[in-house]
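Need the bound structure for guanosine-5'-triphosphate, inputs here:
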Amino acid sequence: MLNQRTQALRVRVEDAVKDLHSLTQAIGHQELTATVGELRNRMSEPYMFVIVGEVKAGKSSFVNALLEQEICAVAPQPMTDTIQQILFGEPPQTVVVNPYLKKIFLPADILRDIAIVDTPGTNSIVERHQEITEGFIPASDLVIFVFEAKNPYRQSAWDFFEFIHAD
Ligand SMILES: Nc1nc2c(ncn2[C@@H]2O[C@H](COP(=O)(O)OP(=O)(O)OP(=O)(O)O)[C@@H](O)[C@H]2O)c(=O)[nH]1
Ligand SMILES: [Mg+2]
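Answer from helper R.:
Posting the output first, comments after.
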């Protein structure tokens, strides 16, 4: 999915971060070494792409439309009941990590480059807000907030948006 120029830039950035990591070790700055080390580990991982929004806003449909394939389950009734991290893997399988988080492995090529986090609609359940904001937002590369087109003015959607944005 990444074009050649982006690939080349990525290699350069990886080299630069590697040098930076060595430098933090050389000067003995443990905190910086940990931060840069974590950054290095994450660089080789696929881009993490998090979708949030209210119940039935069309989050899962949006992911499918964007990727032009049926990656996420879509339905008129509440469908995404846990946070779902969708990753490349063969054979397809679902691993339940905890009551709020599932890892879904699918052999879709696009998932080699991007990992998708599809989240449940969170109109009411604060616990899930926290799981999303603490567990995924800090590590994400892109967060997309989906509003329902028929009514993008609902206060609860904007409250949720502010919550995510503030974080
Ligand atoms: N008319 C119309 N319907 C849509 C659109 N996007 C999604 N839908 C329909 O809205 C319903 C909910 O879509 P989902 O993609 O499952 O919504 P979601 O936000 O993932 O829902 P939860 O995971 O349950 O919170 C489905 O019946 C979709 O077919 C859209 O752009 N226009
Ligand atoms: Mg959904």
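Comments: The first strand starts at residue 47 and ends at 53. The chain has two domains: 4-43, 47-166.
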